[in-house]
């Protein structure tokens, strides 16, 4: 019994000491407290020791970041931030309101960020000595804490739990979300990923090479070790070990996923003012070699060179190239010289030379591989190929050719026997808008004509017999004409559409890739699509779209697709890989979409779940927003329908079929054209001969959204009730009569989320308004789908949908 009392006494004493420690290591921030952004002043609340500060930190002129930083060192290193994507100006305010809301408002009073603490009983806030900023109730229970919302850094005693993510910042000085992420997933696996930048979704894992499972927490302990534990606390994996143990008493510490994609452990001595020192043990050990993503520019961006040294990752541009953006070295490099012309006449051997880059490799993005050839052959082949900008050669006589852009070159002394041959212009002439070869081509053509004339004249003079005077010049003329005709045909085969950087395929290449155009994926009025495998990359399936003869005669659809898709790059658009324009063959080569079209997915036997359908709708909307507002040339698709929405491995929606696309110049807002599109998805203005704007795509998206919601086609003549044949009419009737459940028969999952489904129906009704000005833009549509903008009650679309099916 005495032992039990002693145990109870010790327990009470421990609790008292613990509560005393908490009270001593925080300074409470009361309700109605605020901080205001002021130029040249960091408004902040500090921790009791003064080591950490929370507040509005000035990053650029009149640009403030709500952040937590080390406050006792000159660098004032930021370890957490709230509004990296949207800095606020002078006069902005962060406030803990009387009802416990913790919000950041800009100078106009618009809310920029919130801790989502409203209604939880918040009584005070505090900046703790651990670097954790907390919101607590009267019982000192933490209701919100920055440790649970990390950005790119974790601190000692902080844990990264399952579903926790660190996002690298964009650059050293830009705190918006960057290109890399470190995450402990819900299944316990721990990984580093590249992202689908500028989106936050993960793309390709580049560490670890194996699988780690059953992970529960990532911990940075007070001795500088970073490790992964299981649920029972067992250490499963040590991520980073410092060369020597450190302690919080003598060092500041942090683990940061840096903007270059490397996870590093940093220490800073408290006893002397110096600088942050990174442990030599980093993850991954060589970021240049770790990222072997077949899509994207590698660790340093396209057309760049990557190396690792004692100071970290070095991204540089090769000779003849310069950085696209000096403030963002990961964006890659651009050519500074006039590229080789694909027109006949430029003497490549006189104009170009090679720079040898030793101990270097550039994996992936090859467009041609020729085995068993010497270096000289590879150089000459690249020299004569206007598409070739780099040739990779090695000791086993491989020749790889690369066009623009090429992937990051990995520089490593351990890469022996492999070198890159960089083709650059000898005279270093810089890029110009005019054609650099017009005069040269003219002189060459004149020389050819002169040579032809000399041949004919010479034949006449050398012929002494009357019959030869007639026959020999005729034969010579025919032979010379045939030679030049063949050369002209070869040049025509390899013509490139201006402003589009795509791989060119020969007809024979695509015939071989498709096994003689054997496996048909789909067929339409203007083209047939076949499945193929590229010879240069046997793992890569492609979709080969062969245009029918009618289109080949005019080239209209071919040129529209190549010019519009070739300049686009977005997660929700199908990527055009290359094309063939050879004789009568007009062929487009796209990335292969393993899950086919939305039509087969949506109207098949097994319905997609409600979450998948919402993501598909949102992805399609984002793709259209890119076409309408984010392209260099605004594009109106003109034929949005389920058959033109394709799905990749993860069921990401991608818009395809730009053959009917209408491009607008930057100074245009609308256009006029003949009726395009598919019955049932066509906006009323097509029939009224009115100017066409991006709102026609909004209309088509509205019809598509209804099909996604209901998993049924826009028009179904087999239904028993005639009122239900036209989906748009029936959906509006159900909405007005508050009978939306009728749209969801045999769709229990959507029934459980009837409120959100109702909102989606309302959005669709706004999209299909007869008057184009009443329809939202795709940006507004996305905001409504995401829930950031309220959806008002739609009026009756009032358009006679029956006419659109006739």
TrEMBL record:
Enzyme Commission (EC) number: 2.7.11.1
InterPro entries assigned: Bulb-type_lectin_dom, Bulb-type_lectin_dom_sf, G-type_lectin_kinases/EP1-like, Kinase-like_dom_sf, Prot_kinase_dom, Protein_kinase_ATP_BS, Ser/Thr_kinase_AS, SRK-like_kinase
Membrane topology label: Single-pass type I membrane protein
Record Pfam families: B_lectin, Pkinase
Binding positions for ATP per the UniProt entry: 550
Assigned keywords, A-Z: ATP-binding, Disulfide bond, EGF-like domain, Glycoprotein, Kinase, Lectin, Membrane, Nucleotide-binding, Receptor, Serine/threonine-protein kinase, Signal, Transferase, Transmembrane, Transmembrane helix
UniProt-listed PROSITE patterns: BULB_LECTIN, PROTEIN_KINASE_ATP, PROTEIN_KINASE_DOM, PROTEIN_KINASE_ST
UniProt key word Translocase: no
Domain Bulb-type lectin: 32-148
Cross-referenced SMART domains: B_lectin (SM00108), S_TKc (SM00220)
Recorded superkingdom: Eukaryota
First-level EC class: transferase
Signal peptide start and end residues: 1-23
GO molecular function: ATP binding; carbohydrate binding; protein serine/threonine kinase activity
Known catalytic reactions: L-seryl-[protein] + ATP = O-phospho-L-seryl-[protein] + ADP + H(+); L-threonyl-[protein] + ATP = O-phospho-L-threonyl-[protein] + ADP + H(+)
Gene Ontology CC: membrane
Subcellular location: Membrane
CDD domains per UniProt: B_lectin (cd00028)
Domain (Protein kinase) ranges: 515-789
Family: Belongs to the protein kinase superfamily. Ser/Thr protein kinase family.
This protein's name: Receptor-like serine/threonine-protein kinase
Organism for this UniProt entry: Rubus argutus (Southern blackberry)
Lineage of producing organism: Eukaryota, Viridiplantae, Streptophyta, Embryophyta, Tracheophyta
């Amino acid at each position: 019994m005495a032992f039990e009392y002693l145990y109870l006494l010790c327990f009470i004493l421990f609790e008292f000491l613990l509560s005393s420690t908490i009270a001593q290591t925080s300074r409470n921030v009361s309700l109605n407290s605020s901080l205001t952004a002021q130029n040249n002043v960091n408004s902040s609340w500090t921790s009791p020791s003064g080591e950490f500060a929370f507040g509005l930190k000035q990053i650029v002129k009149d640009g403030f970041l709500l952040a937590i930083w080390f406050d006792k060192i000159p660098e004032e290193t930021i370890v957490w931030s709230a509004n990296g994507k949207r800095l606020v100006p002078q006069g902005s305010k962060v406030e803990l309101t009387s009802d416990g809301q913790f919000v950041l408002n800009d100078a106009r009073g618009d809310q920029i960020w919130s801790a989502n603490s409203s209604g939880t009983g918040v009584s005070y806030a505090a900046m703790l000595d651990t670097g954790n900023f907390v919101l607590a109730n009267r019982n000192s229970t933490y209701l919100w804490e920055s440790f649970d919302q990390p950005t790119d850094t974790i601190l000692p005693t902080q844990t990264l739990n399952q579903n926790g993510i660190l996002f690298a910042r964009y650059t050293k000085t830009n705190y918006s979300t960057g290109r890399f992420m470190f995450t402990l997933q819900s299944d316990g696996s721990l990984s580093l990923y590249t992202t689908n930048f500028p989106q936050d979704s993960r793309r390709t894992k580049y560490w670890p090479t194996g699988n780690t499972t059953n992970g529960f927490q990532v911990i940075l302990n007070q001795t500088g070790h970073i490790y992964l534990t299981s649920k029972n606390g067992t250490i499963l994996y040590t991520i980073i070990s410092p060369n020597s143990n450190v302690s919080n008493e003598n060092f500041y510490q942090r683990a940061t996923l840096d903007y270059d994609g490397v996870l590093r452990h940093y220490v800073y001595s408290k006893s002397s003012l110096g600088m942050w020192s990174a442990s030599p043990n980093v993850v991954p050990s060589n970021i240049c070699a770790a990222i072997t993503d077949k899509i994207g520019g590698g660790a340093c961006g396209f057309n760049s060179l990557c190396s690792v040294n004692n100071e970290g990752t070095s991204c540089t541009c090769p000779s003849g190239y310069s950085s696209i953006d000096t403030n963002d070295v990961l964006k890659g490099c651009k050519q500074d010289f006039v590229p080789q012309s694909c027109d006949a006449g430029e003497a490549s051997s006189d104009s170009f030379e090679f720079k040898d880059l030793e101990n270097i490799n550039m994996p992936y993005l090859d467009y041609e591989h020729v085995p068993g050839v010497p270096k000289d052959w590879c150089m000459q082949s690249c020299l004569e190929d206007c598409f070739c900008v780099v040739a990779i050669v090695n000791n086993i006589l491989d020749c790889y050719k690369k066009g623009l852009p090429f992937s990051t070159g990995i520089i490593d002394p351990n890469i022996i026997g492999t070198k890159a041959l960089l083709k650059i212009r000898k005279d270093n002439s810089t890029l110009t808008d005019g054609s650099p070869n017009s005069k040269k081509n003219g002189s060459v053509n004149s020389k050819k004509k002169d040579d032809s004339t000399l041949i004919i004249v010479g034949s006449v003079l050398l012929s002494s017999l009357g019959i030869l005077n007639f026959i020999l010049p005729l034969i010579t003329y025919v032979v010379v004409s045939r030679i030049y005709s063949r050369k002209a045909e070869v040049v025509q085969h390899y013509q490139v559409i201006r402003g589009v950087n795509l791989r060119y395929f020969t007809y024979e290449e695509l015939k071989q890739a498709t096994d003689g155009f054997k496996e048909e994926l789909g067929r339409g009025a203007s083209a047939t699509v076949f499945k193929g495998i590229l010879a240069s990359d046997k793992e890569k399936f492609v979709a080969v779209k062969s245009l029918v003869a009618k289109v080949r005669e005019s080239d209209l659809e071919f040129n529209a697709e190549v010019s519009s898709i070739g300049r686009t790059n977005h997660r929700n658009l199908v990527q055009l890989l290359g094309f063939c324009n050879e004789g009568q063959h007009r062929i487009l080569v796209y990335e292969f979409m393993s899950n086919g079209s939305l039509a087969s997915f949506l109207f098949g036997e097994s319905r997609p779940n409600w979450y998948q359908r919402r993501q598909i709708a949102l992805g399609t909307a984002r793709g259209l927003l890119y076409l309408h507002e984010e392209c260099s040339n605004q594009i109106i698709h003109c034929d949005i329908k389920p058959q033109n929405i394709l799905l990749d491995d993860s069921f990401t929606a991608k818009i395809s079929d730009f053959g009917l696309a209408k491009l607008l110049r930057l100074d245009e807002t609308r256009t006029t054209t003949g009726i395009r599109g598919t019955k049932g998805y066509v906006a009323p203005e097509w029939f009224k001969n009115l100017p066409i704007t991006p709102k026609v795509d909004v209309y088509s998206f509205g019809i598509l959204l209804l099909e996604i919601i209901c998993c049924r086609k826009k028009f179904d003549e087999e239904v028993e009730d005639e009122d239900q044949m036209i989906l748009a009419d029936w959906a509006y009737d159900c909405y007005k009569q508050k009978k939306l459940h009728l749209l969801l028969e045999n769709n229990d999952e959507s029934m459980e989320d009837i409120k959100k489904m109702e909102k989606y129906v309302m959005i669709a009704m706004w999209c299909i308004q007869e008057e184009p000005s009443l329809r939202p833009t795709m940006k507004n549509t996305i905001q409504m789908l995401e829930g950031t903008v309220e959806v008002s009650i739609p009026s009756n679309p009032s358009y006679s949908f029956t006419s659109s099916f006739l």
